[in-house]
Amino acid sequence: xxxxxxxxxxxxxxxxxxxxxxxxxxxxxxxxxxxxxxxxxxxxxxxxxxxxxxxxxxxxxxxxxxxxxxxxxxxxxxxxxxxxxxxxxxxxxxxxxxxxxxxxxxxxxxxxxxxxxxxxxxxxxxxxxxxxxxxxxxxxxxxxxxxxxxxxxxxxxxxxxxxxxxxxxxxxxxxxxxxxxxxxxxxxxxxxxxxxxxxxxxxxxxxxxxxxxxxxxxxxxxxxxxxxxxxxxxxxxxxxxxxxxxxxxxxxxxxxxxxxxxxxxxxxxxxxxxxxxxxxxxxxxxxxxxxxxxxxxxxxxxxxxxxxxxxxxxxxxxxxxxxxxxxxxxxxxxxxxxxxxxxxxxxxxxxxxxxxxxxxxxxxxxxxxxxxxxxxxxxxxxxxxxxxxxxxxxxxxxxxxxxxxxxxxxxxxxxxxxxxxxxxxxxxxxxxxxxxxxxxxxxxxxxxxxxxxxxxxxxxxxxxxxxxxxxxxxxxxxxxxxxxxxxxxxxxxxxxxxxxxxxxxxxxxxxxxxxxxxxxxxxxxxxxxxxxxxxxxxxxxxxxxxxxxxxxxxxxxxxxxxxxxxxxxxxxxxxxxxxxxxxxxxxxxxxxxxxxxxxxxxxxxxxxxxxxxxxxxxxxxxxxxxxxxxxxxxxxxxxxxxxxxxxxxxxxxxxxxxxxxxxxxxxxxxxxxxxxxxxxxxxxxxxxxxxxxxxxxxxxxxxxxxxxxxxxxxxxxxxxxxxxxxxxxxxxxxxxxxxxxxxxxxxxxxxxxxxxxxxxxxxxxxxxxxxxxxxxxxxxxxxxxxxxxxxxxxxxxxxxxxxxxxxxxxxxxxxxxxxxxxxxxxxxxxxxxxxxxxxxxxxxxxxxxxxxxxxxxxxxxxxxxxxxxxxxxxxxxxxxxxxxxxxxxxxxxxxxxxxxxxxxxxxxxxxxxxxxxxxxxxxxxxxxxxxxxxxxxxxxxxxxxxxxxxxxxxxxxxxxxxxxxxxxxxxxxxxxxxxxxxxxxxxxxxxxxxxxxxxxxxxxxxxxxxxxxxxxxxxxxxxxxxxxxxxxxxxxxxxxxxxxxxxxxxxxxxxxxxxxxxxxxxxxxxxxxxxxxxxxxxxxxxxxxxxxxxxxxxxxxxxxxxxxxxxxxxxxxxxxxxxxxxxxxxxxxxxxxxxxxxxxxxxxxxxxxxxxxxxxxxxxxxxxxxxxxxxxxxxxxxxxxxxxxxxxxxxxxxxxxxxxxxxxxxxxxxxxxxxxxxxxxxxxxxxxxxxxxxxxxxxxxxxxxxxxxxxxxxxxxxxxxxxxxxxxxxxxxxxxxxxxxxxxxxxxxxxxxxxxxxxxxxxxxxxxxxxxxxxxxxxxxxxxxxxxxxxxxxxxxxxxxxxxxxxxxxxxxxxxxxxxxxxxxxxxxxxxxxxxxxxxxxxxxxxxxxxxxxxxxxxxxxxxxxxxxxxxxxxxxxxxxxxxxxxxxxxxxxxxxxxxxxxxxxxxxxxxxxxxxxxxxxxxxxxxxxxxxxxxxxxxxxxxxxxxxxxxxxxxxxxxxxxx
Length: 1508
Fold this sequence. Notes:
Blueprint: H1 2-19, H2 22-37, H3 49-60, H4 67-82, H5 95-111, H6 116-121, H7 128-159, H8 161-165, H9 175-207, H10 215-219, H11 223-239, H12 251-255, H13 257-263, H14 273-286, H15 298-301, H16 306-321, H17 328-340, H18 346-377, H19 383-417, H20 428-443, H21 447-465, H22 486-512, H23 518-529, H24 535-549, H25 554-568, H26 579-594, H27 603-614, E1 618-620, E2 623-625, H28 627-643, H29 646-666, H30 670-686, H31 694-700, H32 709-713, H33 715-721, H34 728-737, H35 745-761, H36 763-774, H37 783-802, H38 811-827, H39 835-852, H40 860-871, H41 873-897, H42 906-922, H43 927-939, H44 944-961, H45 965-984, H46 988-998, H47 1010-1024, H48 1034-1061, H49 1068-1073, H50 1075-1090, H51 1103-1127, H52 1136-1139, H53 1142-1156, H54 1161-1175, H55 1187-1193, H56 1207-1215, H57 1221-1235, H58 1240-1255, H59 1261-1280, H60 1287-1298, H61 1305-1308, H62 1315-1329, H63 1335-1351, H64 1358-1372, H65 1378-1388, H66 1403-1413, H67 1420-1433, H68 1437-1445, H69 1458-1467, H70 1472-1497
């Protein structure tokens, strides 16, 4: 389907470009821009309308050349229409232009030409070509008609059949032709369905193992057997349909059944159900013509009973179609309801009600009989009969249920559209049968299907039973006249009092009327349905209650409303409430409010329930339930706004609007936010002037802007927070009490950001009223509550710091916040499930504490006693429970640690040495030591985010609180211990944390000696290039590079600041001899080497993380130096050239070009963006090689849609840089990664870009030759120095480049540069000679050597010919991989000169026979002798020597059994030398395997490390 869509998109849009005028194009562009500005999926117009109308015109005018084109265009039309399922009203403008051509096409080519096809079939055709063209045009015409019906059905599905039917042609003359065609199409459809059903039954029985009788077996039977079988078949036909149909079908018909079903959609000779559906809707429009049916056919019949004939035909068809499975049932129910409501169809109407009653009764009776039969069958022993009876019962039950659905929908529609007096008195027999059938439907398991239709029918019956007058007691909004004088107002009041008296009298009369008893039963059934699990049933029940209560007296209606309020809104909306009941209750109240049946006296009880429903949310595991309840509550708010007058709703208006604003901003679901926004807009519009700041909020927080969740929690929160009197209190209350504790992590994070923004507006209110409530929740047992509280505290403290409001924070709150860290650390609850979130939250609190500079030298034990005394007995119980939990955890850990006693390692002794220094202060529980221990513990956590948050907190802790000598010594001890951990600890998590910590040292605040700075830099550099598998870790390398970034920035700032601050200026030579400059150059070189990291593990190219980060850090250094020199004119003598010389910048840019040519899109994007910024940086860097030419290639402002990720756009620009010799080798080396990759599109884009580069020199042939020569020399240089990881891509790249035939003239013209490719061939030969065990390399090399061998065989270059044959023979001599031998032999068979007989030499014929007749994929023993003779004939003595060294090498099976290996070794005789060599090799391999196994045992991912 996707391919069809693409074809139609391209084919349909191109011709439109010539039709649309420039003004229309501008309008479309403006509309597209408006659509892009809205960050939602809402549509404002049918963008594809011209294309849609054009495709329909093409369909109706039969302009399609073949069936495939017709099918693709039809699927495109349906796809366009289906896009507007959520906004179908946008199609209303274009419906007439779409439907009228289709109806005219169907009418002219199908309805009015029923017999034309039969007449055409009798004509004789002479020419074969004309017959084929006529057949194809006829088939296209039939398929076009079929697709027209399908398109009309799709329109009715999207927009609704009631809207679509109005646009059909409704001339009276069309009734008979359309009815005739409906009868024909329906009967054809029924026959097709019967055939399909029978084939499906046969296929099911055939698959279940029941033997089928074939036609041949039937024909070969005796006559007596045939007669017996006929008698049995007749008996079966009387009992159950046409079961003998099985014997008349072949097995091939059964097998091909599914294929026929699939092709029926595109088969023009098969009637579709869409055709019957549309024709029935068309007849339903035609039967409501305002005159008798007898006037239509009087000319043809002359009889007066034509009315009976037309109606009887429709009734007969309708009764048959009411039990259909498809949508045909709905269209015929609509047809029957309109037909039976005609004024001249009273008798038929009563007869249909009688038939419906009898059908319902018979179905319910059959159900009782079936249940009895099944009970009796369970006692029988014949299982096959039981199975057949059960299948028959199931089929009959399904057909009965479908028939009941059709009858119910027809009766409901008929009662709705007909005159109430026609159905009075109500047939109570029908009502009783309907209620009895409901029990059968509920027990049959089809309640979900039939419940909606049943409820619709019940409410229509109730409406007929009740008086037709609407309730006089319902509320009606009164619009007060403006500018009236006092006397007129008095007169109006007197008139209103008179009207009230009259209404009271009318109400008394209504109460005197008796209400049928059946109404109570109907209301009870509807009230039960309000709790149903299906939304559509609850919605139907809510509308039914609104319609029925509208006809009830006041007392009875008030009782129903009271039941809805009392029964639906039970239990707590956050814990154990029933979501279905709350949802049904809100919908019912909304329907009652819309009709004015919810009297103002009830608002006192309804509004509190409404507020509770707006925040309904019950957590169930990892998700919550309640979004549909909140959405229905918004609907109730909308109904209240539309119904009640300002004077009545004003007491509740403010609280409703405030809560709607909260829901529109902070609800998790987008539909709830939009519903609340729409309800608030209705409140503001209907009650203008009563909603404070309503217009401002509606225009800013409108229906579209609340669709973006981040925008609602940030931008709109700041806007709403400005209204501090009306909206700020409820917003902050909701955030601080509900949203920050939400079960969704994203909502908690966004809520904490919103609290940060609101703290900026009113910090005192949050500190006084909400922060004391949030702090105790950090000790909650629920992880999401603990995490949300910690995030909120952190954001509040950061906001106080940013706005200089730290003085507002009292000391008791500071101590409470510090106690949260101490209690969390002591409880150890963060080590359980969800402990990662708790650790992250506590690290954020510590970060904000250090930012605000809390006093950390206090003893927390005293404050703990004070807080415990103030908290009361409840907290004492909680503390006792926590102590008990801690004791249990300690007992478990002590039992786990008893059996294993390990000697202390170096890292543990270092940790002990640091903890012993702090042991003295731990006794006093100093806050600083608690925080330090907590952060150091989190620094060793396996989670990466926890480590990063801990390192951020460490950095602030060092910079703010390391001032005394004791703390400085503690810092130096930490540096020593973490350097040792980074060097010696096997635990990867510990080394990752140490590498982060060493970059978080307070370089600016404390003058660290050069010795310690050098030590830190050396340890970080060593960790970047660690190759020992025990210590090699990609996350450690990334963390070390980020730490080197911070240290490098510190060194650069110290160099520049020192030179600016001194009066006497140093010379550049003295600067370069300084320790800071030496350390910076060391860091620069380290990062330059780190760009060559190509490490790979199970996660892929993890070395790309190091390469990307290294390039970014080096660029940050350059940008820092350049910007510093631009700002400080006093340090101009320290230009960027003095710190970063030309060689360093050239190597860096060359490396960037190499990375830009590689296969990873992300690396290419980063490298190219850095190159772009370097070229256009201000002030400019003038010593970049070929800068001016590069600036012409990489322009300052690229196209808006240009993207470096897309290779078809980026690689042509990158390949233009190949013309510069200094960038040629690195860029080509990077392009080899793309040229030799596995992605086909990347290879093609790379080859095309290189072709474009060389084609740019077509007008300059001499220069082109020089560029090709230099390009080839670079290929030779790469082949000489290729690393192991690039061997296979290099072979593939050379082959792909040679296949372009750009370099053929080197060999063909016998030029002086032919030695280049000779050397390339020799280098490739040497590589495969030394890598005979790498099967992927050998397979990739076959194409390259065969290209040399075949392409250059006709030339006189003997060197290339000799080494290409030698290479292929070397591959043929590989005794380990049969596949390599076979492919190499296939390439040798393509040779011409190798088998050419010259001077009557017999060797070529022998060579040919050996190459062609030997099966090279056979075992070594079979091919060894032919291989030796072939090498002797070709004078390959060197290869013969290689064979003699290892003559019995065999492929290594993947997992052979031990016995097979031993038997195989017994058959082979090894020499002593070879066995010794093999033993040595095995020992080396075992050593390597041991190392690899040890490395494999170490966890490669941080998630593999678990806490004890």
